[in-house]
Amino acid sequence: MIEGRESRSTSDGALVEAENLKVHFPITAGLFQRTVGAVRAVDDVTFDIRRGETLGLVGESGCGKSTTGRALIRLRDATDGVVRFDGVDLFSLSREKLRKMRRRMQIIFQDPYSSLNPRMTVGSIISEPIETHDLARGKEKNERVRELLALVGLNPRYTNRYPHEFSGGQRQRIGVARALAVEPEFIVCDEPISALDVSIQAQVLNLLVDLRKQFSLTYLFIAHDLSVVRHISDRVGVMYLGKLVELGPPLAIYETPAHPYTRALLSAVPIPDPKAERRRKRVILTGDVPSPANPPPGCRFHTRCWLYEKLGRPENCRTEDPELRLVGGDHQAACHYAEDALQSDVGVAHLAADAPRRAAVPEVVADPALAAAASGGSSEPSGGGSTSGEAAPGG
Amino acid sequence: MTATDDNRRSDPPGSPAVAELPETIELPEAIQIETEEGRRLAAQIADDKTRHARKLLEVRDLSTHFFTKDGEVRAVDRVSFDLDYGETLGLVGESGCGKSVTALSMTRLVPDPPGKIVSGEIIFDGVNVLKLSNEEMRLLRGKRIGFIFQDPMTSLNPTLPVGFQISESARLHLGLSRRAAADRAVELLGKVGIPRARDRMKDYPHQFSGGMRQRVMIAIALACDPMLLLADEPTTALDVTIQAQILELIRSLSEEFGTAVILITHDLGIAAGMCNRVNVMYAGRIVETGTVDELFEHPRMPYAWGLLDSLPRLDEQRGARLRTIEGMPPDLIEPADDCRFAPRCPYVREVCRQKEPELSPRGEERHLARCWGTEPGGWIQ
Q1: Is A274 in contact with B273 (Cβ distance < 8 A)?
Q2: Contact predicate B317/A251, CB 8 Å
Q3: Does residue A127 register a pLDDT over 50?
Q4: Which of A270, B96, B121, B272 could be cross-linked to A274 through a Cys-Cys bond (beta carbons 3.0 to 4.6 Å apart)?
């Protein structure tokens, strides 16, 4: 499975490219709404998303990850910079051409409650994009809607129900069906599972993984949950205060992170394992994230950086904004002292090689009637075999 | 606290104490003692931190139901557990499992109507909480039990300066003067890590960031040195780096004050890092309880290990698909008399659909699970 994903991602170049992308929001004041400053939500970000890959984007609230996602499909106009989709500059397109292009890119939103129109039936929510792009009409359209519902694991007969009749997880499935209705190539998933309960999160995450395979989709997966991003991504980008500070494959980002912010972030994520928790070396970042309207000079992270303190506050952290540079194969970081960060065990101390793992989940004995007879007294051998095999049916 | 000292020094000479609060805001009236149980509680409070029972908290067969137009929702159904002095206990589960209502019941803050504690006993430090009058409950709240809620913006009063909100309970419960209570508030704000504490006493909640507001909440909760801190999803609204700060703060302050903590969370990672013991709740029932090590390493109830297994982990590269718990939690209006998890359980047998199992011991001390399959001689080993 992993090999398959990798070969897919390297097969043919970039589908989406962002070059020196900047999105600033003006701050106005006074009677005449004079512009007095700007919130630099996204400030000079360059990266690409390869065809067929899932790029995870993580960071704290206000770091610009959602704004980046929206700019990539031109739901937000950029202040500066270029976004190319399949080689075409999105910001140069006319309205009509952009509308046609939009068929190829879709978005799934975080909040399944507010992103569905409560006055529309599920059928009309899903068929709206089909009508907009004139992909099917009449009977064929209705058939398509039922197909989509079945595809995301909902009952195809539900077309006449309203969003409030569904649970959060089901609503998110409706959002996925709507995005898939136009057969896109690229989907921006903006915190698609953050509003859901743990057991439902896994269901929706699995759905996204299955669909990616089935339709060779390319995802930008935006989330604040680092564990989820590790699970689903082929590459991971870390943002801080409008900047992309680190980019690389999950193994590099999670086990040999080269930016001190990534390490601090990793050290803060709780792990559902008391022993791993005790092993950890936590860096408590002091203070809050500075305002993106007035970011610190030099490296934006230096005001909270533990490495900066440890190295005796080197001057270039305060004066020079570090560029994203290669620190290993396909692994980039924006830190003057990435090599020193790599030496540390901050943020990865929980990864002890000899860490004991939780006992494997017992196997499901298929036939209750038969097994009930067998289980009378003796115990079956303690569940050594994990059931990961049967947990992964095709979909 | 050094910050406090610095600020004191930086005050211009001759200026009035910054922490002085408006005279116009009146304190709530003193608490009237009416019942036998209330007299007992008042006497104990005068005694301060002496222990009056074997356990700080004993909850027996607590049921809290909500009476809605659709029927009686059994949000908390015959829940029993106890808590040692100074212990940190986690209540974990998904939304609607009854963890928050359990905590609200302990301070009788369940909105009534529609909610009502229909049966059970809550013994706090030897005092029968359900026998106290509504008035006497105020003795318990704030003085003996402090709260931290999920959303600090809605649980702080937006129209009052934070200094007043912190000193209010110290004036009421500890009988401090306005000046002394203000000094205590400054000290507490310093303790919870708010810089320039003295200057910020007159600020309103909206002038603080989310993490800072949660710190103010913690200062209020600890203002009267309570024996129990109820933290209901204290970090859910916060970013992960701020979450780490707040959890660290709760941990260090509860150690310093010897405060017991009940931590309600849906995040198993937080429970693993913070708690001594954990109760797993599902559909209004406790389905498993044990020390964190036992529970996370040898869960003995399919819901608990399903939950653990459906989490992607930071320290593991897993396969492409996660294991899931299929289906959804049951309706709590007159639930059937079966194992509540049976409809979603991959190990289910006929017996599970007929009768709900007891919460029974599983080897290690204080490890209990509610599952026919993992009982001795059961079919899940």
Answers
A1: yes
A2: yes
A3: yes
A4: B272
In the stretch 90-129 of chain A, residues with CB closer than 8 A to chain B read: none
With CA atoms as reference, the chain A residue closest to B291 would be A274
Please judge whether A60 and B347 are an interchain contact, meaning their C-beta atoms are less than 8 angstroms apart. no
pLDDT of amino acid A198 = 83
- A153-157, A341-345, A369-373, B136-140: lowest mean pLDDT where? A369-373
Classified as helix, coil or strand, A374 is helix
DSSP helix/strand/coil, A204: helix
Q: Using CA atoms, how far apart are residues A336 and A315, in angstroms rounded to an integer?
A: 11
CA A361/CA A382 separation, integer angstroms:
10
Residues of chain A found within 8 Å of residue B308, distances taken between Cβ atoms: 272, 358
Q: What is the pLDDT of residues A304-357, one digit of tens each?
A: 999 999 999 999 999 999 999 999 889 999 999 999 999 988 888 777 655 545
- Give CA–CA dist A7/A83, Å, rounded: 25
Of B240, B270, B298, the CB nearest to A60: B240
Residues 267-296 of A with CB under 8 A from B: 267-277, 282, 284-286, 288-289
Report the alpha-carbon distance of residue B296 to residue A276 in Å, rounded. Answer: 11
Alpha-carbon separation of residue B98 from A288, A389, B92, B309 (angstroms): 33, 34, 9, 22
Measured CA to CA in angstroms, residue A310 lies from A260, A321, A327, B19, B208 at distances of 11, 19, 21, 37, 29
Residues 6+ apart with CB under 8 A from A113: A163, A168, A171, A195
Q: What is the pLDDT of residues A177-230, one digit of tens each?
A: 999 999 999 999 999 988 888 888 888 999 999 999 999 999 999 998 899 999
Q: What's the predicted TM-score (pTM) here?
A: 0.83
- Identity of the residue in A197, A210, A372 whose CB atom sits nearest the CB atom of B94: A197
Which of A228, A350, A391 faces B323 most closely, judged by CB atoms? A391
Under 8 Å between Cβ of A111 and A194? no
Q: Tokens for A265, please give them.
A: 């972030």
Residues 6+ apart with CB under 8 A from A131: A141
pLDDT at B19 > cutoff 50: no
